[in-house]
Amino acid sequence: MSDYNEMWKGLGLDMERHDQLLNALGAIYSDVYMGQKDRPKGMEYFDFVMSEVHGLRIKELLDHKEKGGKIVGTFCLYVPDEIILAGGGVGVGLCGGAQFSVPDAEAVLPRNLCPLIKSAFGFKLAKICPYFEAADFVIGETTCDGKKKVWELLNNHIPTYVMEIPNMKREMDKALWFNEVKAFMEKMEKEAGVKITPEALEEKIKLVNEKRKAIQRVFDTRKANPVPISGKDALLISQIAFYDNPERFTTKVNELADELEERNKKGEGVFDEKRPRILVSGCPMAIPNWKLHNVIEDSGGVVVCEESCVGTRYFTHSVEEERPTLEDKVKAVAERYLKINCSCFSPNEERIDDILRYVKDYNASGVIHYTLQFCHTYNVEFVRVKEALKKANVPVLEIETDYSEGDVGQLKTRVEAFIEQIS
Ligand code: SF4
Ligand code: SF4
Q: Which residues are paired to 161 by β-bridges?
């Protein structure tokens, strides 16, 4: 690996803490990922990305900045990548998935707040995430209460632009959202000093659509039994989608999908076909949050699909291509994003329909509903999810957890019992 110390120092990172973080990350990755049997060859690229996650990719981002491009940090699927890219920017997901930075955040924020928010905020406070330090500005959004109040604080540390995301999907909400996307495009133009043309937007719409289709191909192969890829590996791909160069990522995911489709044809899998198939549904899992998948696959189950922002919510639905004017194209972008079914919306019937459909499509034997502690929207929505699954005779287990390792033993006991029940 190259020596990136000068680059990290130049970004103003706390070098000692950053070293500790990288060492911890390397150890967890090796523990969770490198012992898996029969991994697809195509996963080598994603191992490489992880080995360079604070190295090569950061260098690429800094090179992009040097050429005048902007680095835009995001925390939510509703922030349209197409607009960032059309403005000559690069979007990077900054959601925190590590316990490492939670105590830094808890020195300022209340402890009874979702770990994803605390982890991200802690990374900025402690200056240990090079993506945060490379970003020119970040985009917050009015989704859950915790996030929208934290943006006010984050703005003291990095310019934070907030997009108003409606909480309902009526005609008037759609109009509000369309205007928000337009305002965001103007913000992007102002920051980047460019005028977004219809051609540029169309090109990026196609690029992001291709990226989504590539991930969809990988997910489709997971419908087979035996599964050609572990849930942990599939999760990793969804997580890396938020950081990697989109063109290269799409090529590599398509290569992997070719390999997995071949495996399906030959009936080859990574696990015994008798393993109970689990659909994981709920809160997002940002890198390096592999806790639940690791517990499930260590306990004799296999994760076949994630109804999650690191999963189906990321790639389902394309933006309609080739609309005539710039205004129409922006509208197409806004329409696609409002089809994401996040629990911050009310009502959110479509998410329940999605879960029931994925249970069938992926032939899942049960659902594990994953809620991050203090995430009220997913937590409360689970009541309706549970009712719907009960009606459909689908076994479900609810897991509410944080990023600490303290409850892993207890989680394992519960997941093992669930897997035995559905075996
Ligand atoms: S769960 Fe909702 S608020 Fe969180 S990233 Fe996904 S879409 Fe955004
Ligand atoms: S997991 Fe829930 S509480 Fe945490 S940021 Fe996402 S929506 Fe908000």
A: 139
Q: Answer yes or no: do 149 and 192 share one domain.
A: yes
Amino acid at 23: N
**In sequence order, what are the residues at sequence separation of 6 or more whose Cβ sits closer than 8 angstroms to the Cβ of residue 401?**
291, 292, 370, 371, 372, 373, 407, 411
Both 41 and 188 in one domain: the answer is: yes
Report the candidate in 230, 212, 240, 235 with the shortest Cα–Cα distance to residue 52. Answer: 240
H helix intervals, 267-396: 291-298, 312-315, 326-337, 349-361, 376-391
3-state secondary structure of 96: coil
Question: What's phi and psi for 223, nearest 5 deg?
Answer: -75, -20
For ligand 1, atom 2: residue with the closest CA: 342
DSSP letter, residue 55 = T
Alpha-carbon torsion angle 289, 151, 178, 353, nearest 10: 40
Among 84, 90, 318, residue whose Cα is nearest residue 201: 84
What's residue 2's pLDDT?
A: 66
Position 169, amino acid: K
Rounded Cα–Cα distance for residues 110 and 378 (Å):
20
- Which of the listed residues 238, 344, 372, 375 should we mutate to test ligand 1's pocket, taking the one with most ligand atoms within 8 A of CB? 344
Q: What is the CA radius of gyration of the chain?
A: 21
User: In the chain, which stretches have pLDDT less than 50?
Assistant: none
Report pLDDT for 322.
Answer: 86
Residues 230 and 39 sit within 8 Å (Cβ to Cβ): yes
Ligand 2 centroid–CA 374 distance in Å is 8
372 and 286 in a common domain? yes
CA 151 to chain centre: 19
Range of 225's domain?
203-317+343-422
User: 3-class SS at 347?
Assistant: coil
